[in-house]
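so my prof wants the structure for this chain in the tokens format not the other one, which i didnt know existed until like an hour ago. anyway here's the sequence
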Amino acid sequence: MILTKIKDLFSKALIILSFFLFLSIFVYINYIASPSFKAPVLKSLALTLGFLLIFIAVDYFMDKFKNKKAVYYAIIGIIIFAGLLLRLYWTNSVSTIQISDFGRMWESAGEIAEGNFSRFQKNGYLYTYPHLAFTTLFYSLIHMITGSSLMAMKLVNIGLSLLTAFLVYLISGELSNGKKATAIFIMAINSPFIFFNNILDSQNLAAPVFYFAVLLYLKVFKKKIHPLYLVAVGALLSLGNLFRSVGPIFVIAIIMHMLIFSSYSLIQKRKKGKPLKLDKALLGPLCLVLMLVAMYVTTFVLNYIFIWAGVFQKPTWDTGGNLILYINAGFNHESNGMWNQEDYDLLRDVGFDYDKAEIEARKRLEQRLADKDKVLTLISNKYRTQWGAGDFGGLYWSTVELESNPKATNDMLVWLNYHFYYVQAFYSALILAIMLKLARGYYKNEIKPEFYFGLILFVGFVCLHTLIEMQPRYGYIAMPMITALAAASIGERRSTDEGSV
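here's what i got, hopefully its the right format
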């Protein structure tokens, strides 16, 4: 009874919170962002509605073929192939220069491929930022196999992007009543999943690993597979976290969702003369411990393999107080909580003394938190900047510096820059689909328990980037779940378990 009341209260609060978070994104896109790209409010809203109608039409059309599996999967294959062509066209047309961390990781990977591990030495790039170590090691493998071919790495990104698209297609089915072809349609043509293939962003490597873990978890939650698969979930979360240090957000979301939304009894009634038995439904929550153990052991073993081999000087979780540095940068009012040279130089200015850096960061943070009104304004600005970009910064990072700019590329980029509101409206349509689902679900109590997992995960990412340094590209890792939520929100009333494939 108590667990039921907690679940009901939490569900209502989560729906309300999520609705207003998505509503603020929707308002920002259509009333602020799109008009800045020369799309009046009415035009932006009309495009949003148009894209939503397209998604509904695709869902309706594909639903007609669910019982004709050969035709259904042929269409899915065509959609994936179209997504492949779009990605190949983009990577072949735009010769992106890898700058910032992207360039440093690729350069470091070339040195590592030649047996030079100096970047891992004290005060070296990967010693100072150890969370980038495994991504750089992966790039070094590409260097060794392909002879330092950047295009080869982009092709790997394309393959991983399409794999993520397929995983989102499967995940959307777990969030609703059956697999949603709308999900793979959106993933195939949505701009961030095209633009980011040109960028050596660790999220490209982490996304398929994290979302494979999500898929397994949802199957465990729905009792389609044994709870012991949570061990595999833990190992996958560890691998994803080694590429992109947001694994704790996924872990917290899984634990919260399993404990709140699973059906189990802490105390089972005992019949007279019968011994007390453990409720079988408790097996899932109990296996969360094994998931955490698997995650820790995988992280520990992989780190110490490279430490014992003389490559790493310290484990990747030893960031030397970097978290407080990121939080401090996240509350820099002048930079809107984004990357800034002042806070970036802090560690260097104290001679890479992590203790001094932490003390200085705390002093700056205390001063920046003193003015509550400025802090609230900063949080508001950070939120809309973080979540209001329809491509999550993909166009900027893939075109900020170009190696070559032939006429075909130039014409395409000019068109994109003048018609960016289409990208915003596409994203806005996804947000609108989720909002409509939440509004209907709140009043009719028809939201499935699995759907809440996606909401918890999204709120987790919002909380993370409210605290730490923010950039639009940091939200890219959450976009697959946003897509799955949107796809699961479209045409769900027509979907049935019997008609799923």
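also thought this was worth mentioning. Confidence is low (pLDDT under 50) at residues 495-501.
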